[in-house]
Design brief:
globular, 15 strands, alpha/beta, single chain, 19% strand, binds guanosine-5'-monophosphate, 3-stranded antiparallel sheet, 359 residues
Amino acid sequence: MPRVDADLKLDFKDVLFRPKRSSLKSRSEVDLQRTFTFRNSKQTYSGIPIIAANMDTTGTFEMARVLSKLWCLGVTSVLCPFQHTLFTAIHKHYTVEEWKNFAANHPECLEHVAASSGSGSGDLDKLCAIAEAVPALKYICLDVANGYSEHFVDFVKAVRGKFPMHTIMAGNVVTGEMVEELILSGADIIKVGIGPGSVCTTRIKTGVGYPQLSAVIECADSAHGLKGHIISDGGCSCPGDVAKAFGAGADFVMMGGMLAGHDQCLGDLIEKNGKKFKLFYGMSSDTAMKKYVGGVAEYRASEGRTVEVPYRGDVESTIRDVLGGVRSTCTYVGAAKLKELSRRTTFIRVTQQSSQMFA
Ligand code: 5GP
């Protein structure tokens, strides 16, 4: 007989933060920097833990150049110039040659980028070639749609064997037991999210998924118990959602759709009726599969959408908006540092996020 877990699982839209008494005077006092030492690589990270998704539209070298800039409010540290920069998971379709050029021309960006890979044997060969060509590379992002397969677990172990010093991100999964298995197999940071993405159709095509807020709360608990870390991947549609992911216990938050439509994204501008757009699509959409593997294989369905996103100019203003929002959340709950946000978080269940009067 099938089992039904009747515990209520929540999404970002189902909750709000309960404000708390605070001695903070201004959001400019809030420190968004976090420092982590990773469980398996033993490497240390310092920065603002927001990641551009490793989709070919957003995980670009151009994005990395902007996200690697300092985003502090006037406080720079000479000791660690990277502590106020964001992170980019570079998509897996760049050639080794393109990686070499990027590394040679922008060595300052290498501290906070990851090279992505699927779990095919060709993927691993390419990852090895990139790591050899770019010795300063510190992060690897192993990304498959379904992180539950035994093959993926073996792949994570093999990559850890080859790269003992690299920090490995791996996913995607949404439950604690699989977070633990991947960490024990050598991953440092687990990507959490199945189905929440803005251009994802997995829940429609397969009926599989897990509301993202609950997934993050449960997976963070499992990861932190083993001194591992998690990324909340997908489902953020506004700065408040990013803050909720951190409040729920995410160490990092990954965004695709929120960074789409900018100058730094791959793709030409489309002009229609005097308005400008950029194409944004899921990495397993028809668009992506036609581009990279010549079409959708017969045995599978496309699990991604293609959308035209209104052009939004330089990504800088969007980043400022996100960082400003999260800083403000911290002041509402009395967290002087991002690190304190989840400890200061009480979520309340709501039936409406905001007024719809002028929506
Ligand atoms: P967003 O921030 O746009 O809500 O979510 C971004 C995330 O959606 C990505 O990091 C990735 O995990 C997921 N994603 C990207 N492309 C696809 C796709 O084609 N199908 C599915 N199921 N998920 C996707």
